Amino acid sequence: GRFKRTEDVDWELSLINVTLIIAFYESLHAYLYLRSREVRREGKVSIRVLDRGEDNALALNSIFFRNSIVFLSEEIDEVILRHEEGHLKQINYVYMLLIATGALLPLTTLVAIPAIALGKLLLWKTERDADLYAYYKYNITYNMQAERPGKRVKRLLAWLLDSHPPDYIRKEEKYYDKKTSILSLFVRDLVLQ
Length: 193
Prior knowledge:
With 193 residues, the chain is an alpha+beta fold. The chain is 54% helix and 10% strand. The chain has seven helices and four strands. The protein has helices at residues 6-35, 78-88, 93-104, 112-138, 152-160, 167-170, 182-192, and strands at residues 37-42, 45-49, 57-60, 68-71. Helix 2 crosses helix 4. The longest helix is centred in the first third of the chain and has 30 residues, at 6-35. It starts with 5 loop residues before the first helix and ends with a helix.
């Protein structure tokens, strides 16, 4: 009749969420790809430039836009290039988590808190895996001048407010040891030191 069952509405909201997430994510990648220009190719990988004056790059690793690295400045930094190349070798777990969360959120809001925590862990893991790829394939380490904050609150904020592990962690030798998990680096930084 006139009213739909709750389960039907929930699945419709799930479908709308998933559609919006895919549309937004793919549109962002389309924008980056279409607005940038290719400066070179390495095998199947397109190295592109979209000059925004920022010393950074993004790996396009979505459903429709793959195998492209877009630099946000005119300069192609070899360290950043190899890190982003590592992202192209990964399954995009963060994108998959966004889609799964979007699908499940209308069914139960209890998924939100674990999804945020899992998303943060996945970001740290994928960023570290890209660093490990650059290290083991090209012997590239991250060597930014960053001092470890003395206060735990500042260290916690350094972990939480960036998609990468903190710079002071990324320059340490133990960061590049595959046997050391990202979670143990986090706990050691906040609790044990």
